[in-house]
Every structure is written in structure tokens, then in C-alpha cells.
Design goal:
- 43% of the residues lie in helices and 12% in strands.
- It has seven helices and five strands.
- Helix 1 packs antiparallel against helix 2, helix 1 packs across helix 4 and helix 2 runs antiparallel to helix 3.
């Protein structure tokens, strides 16, 4: 079940790993590029506006040989020009990206996701609408592209107990006040469809 906090002006949703799998399958049923975009947001913590940047040339195995890293040019939460950071990529996502890039014949400099930010957001919205219709579960309609990043951050900080400073670095948050909302266990809404 999608966890929801609808107490404020914005409905916030947290997806479980299983729900993220379901969303990836749904979006991937129409196009592999869309699935890669959802994986970059939900498994790697990218913002929708950052998804169209990474390419094969930005992906590398860490120097100590234990994790995939990739360069992201993302939002500077202090304002100003885009900020460059290294983000984590799980092995399964790296495998998918490598296969996808080979299948599509992408040059090392070509972005994996060649779409605008509004398109990426629309892909997520279309997929959650399909899931909501098929499952007759209205709560899915509240899920947004940002909820994928929210789910990723909460998973790592709350469930895996990853250090806040590490999460700030890989997630692109410049100060503690920007990441603090992710530190709490999400509320479960009693709202019924």
C-alpha cells in the first residue's frame, strides 16, 4: 500500500520497494526509456529535472570497487547555477542502463533519457493513473515524480540508516533544512478510496 501524508497542502506519498517495482513495470510496458527514467528517480534519487542529463560517459565504478557512481548536474538548493554531484546507482539499475544503452546504440555522450522534465512527470502520472484504474485504488492517483525521490531518500535514511551528510551529498541537498523532512517516518493516512 502507498503510504500517504495528506495533512498539509500537498499530498506526499511514499512507495515501498514493491510499489516502486510495480510502477517500473507499468511505465516500462510502454517504453524502456520511461522505465530508466523511473529507476533514476526511484532507485537513484534524481529529481525529474535531472533525469535527462546522465549518459554512459558519466557512469563509473567507484575507486574502491564497491558501487556504481554517476555524475548528475542538478538543482543547486542554495540558488545559482546547476551543481554537479556523484549519485549512487544500484547494480540492477546499472545492468539495465548498460543493456538499454547497447540496445539503443547510444553514443557515450547521449543521455539515457532524452525527454523534457514535463514529459518525465507526465510519464509517471500516466503510469500511476493506469495502476489506480487497474487496482481500483485511488491513492495511487496522488503519486508524483517527486514522490519517487521522497521514497528513495526515506528508504535510505529511515530504513537503512544512511548518514545524513552522505545523503545530502548524493542527493544534492545543500543544507540540513532541505533534507530534514525526509528524516521522519511517513504518516499513514486513514483516508479510504
Amino acid at each position: 500500500m502507498v503510504r500517504i501524508d495528506d495533512a498539509g497542502s500537498e499530498t506526499k506519498c511514499w512507495l515501498s520497494r514493491e510499489e516502486l517495482d510495480q510502477l517500473e513495470r507499468e511505465v516500462g510496458s510502454s517504453d524502456w526509456q520511461r522505465e530508466i527514467a523511473v529507476q533514476l528517480m526511484g532507485r537513484c534519487g534524481l529529481r525529474a529535472s535531472e533525469v535527462s542529463y546522465p549518459a554512459d560517459e558519466h557512469l563509473r565504478w567507484s575507486e574502491d570497487g564497491d558501487i556504481w557512481l554517476f555524475e548528475v548536474r542538478g538543482k543547486n538548493t542554495r540558488g545559482g547555477q546547476r551543481k554537479v554531484r556523484d549519485a549512487w546507482m544500484p547494480e540492477a539499475v546499472a545492468d539495465d542502463v548498460h543493456k538499454y544503452s547497447r540496445e539503443r546504440g547510444l553514443a557515450p555522450t547521449e543521455s539515457w533519457v532524452q525527454a523534457s522534465t514535463p514529459s518525465v512527470r507526465r510519464w509517471v502520472k500516466e503510469a500511476v493513473e493506469e495502476i489506480a484504474d487497474r487496482r481500483d485504488d485511488e491513492r495511487w492517483r496522488d503519486v508524483s515524480s517527486h514522490d519517487l525521490r521522497r521514497s528513495w531518500a526515506t528508504h535510505h535514511m529511515v530504513e537503512r540508516q544512511v548518514d545524513v551528510r552522505t545523503m545530502m551529498a548524493v542527493g544534492g541537498w545543500s543544507d540540513y533544512s532541505a533534507i530534514e523532512p525526509y528524516l521522519k517516518e511517513p504518516c499513514v493516512s486513514d483516508r479510504r478510496p
